[in-house]
Please model this.
Amino acid sequence: AVVSTQSGHYGRDTNYILRLARSFRMPATQRKAFEHLPSSVVPVHYTLSLHPDLQKHTFVGKETIDVEVKEGVSTIKLNSAEIAIQSAAFVASGAKLVSSNIQPNDEEETLTLSFPENLPLGPGQLVLNFTGILNDKLRGFYRSSYTAGDGSKKNIAVTQFESTDARRAFPCWDEPAMKATFDVTLTSPVETVALSNMPVVKEDVQGDLKVTTYDRTPIMSTYLLAFVVGEFDYVGARDKN
Model:
């Protein structure tokens, strides 16, 4: 329907458009209500290592998440999207439980890890190895490029995690209330600059690669974490705090 500016038609046509729009809405019975992640296991600290490949637009990751098990459960549910889990294990008090079932849910953007027995209460560590893609969606851990002064194309890897896209870079409790600290290590070609939230505490050159480790972050939400890898100059400074 074409909305007429004449008062006699405007109201009728507007009502028609509204009715038409409502007809395309998903019925309430088909919309799944948002559910928070279970609070039976919560994160305390992430030790995260990522190695992006700027040419293949992929990355390899490993993380050890210090967690607190608050209830006797045999599963851990966290957020994950566009990530392939290679292995998952839970370690506590010197004992290691390997996940018996790794179950991603693409629709919910979650990952459920099942273990052969209940996890011991208290502190433990969730150890994950995974791979992912540097997507072209401008969210999560994604790829971009620029043209250098000599006309060549330079690829870079950057992040945009707000509000719930850290899960595209590493499995995590990707809810603002689930705060933790982070130790980040990035592996990149020696000619690149690798930056993250915190100052560099160590940089090791290993052949044509360098491994950059950063200071521990304050307690914060996952969406505040950031890193970038590419060939560029930067200016850095520290305030008095």
Q: What stands out?
A: The first helix runs from residue 7 to 23. Residues 1-12, 20-24 have pLDDT under 50 and may be disordered.
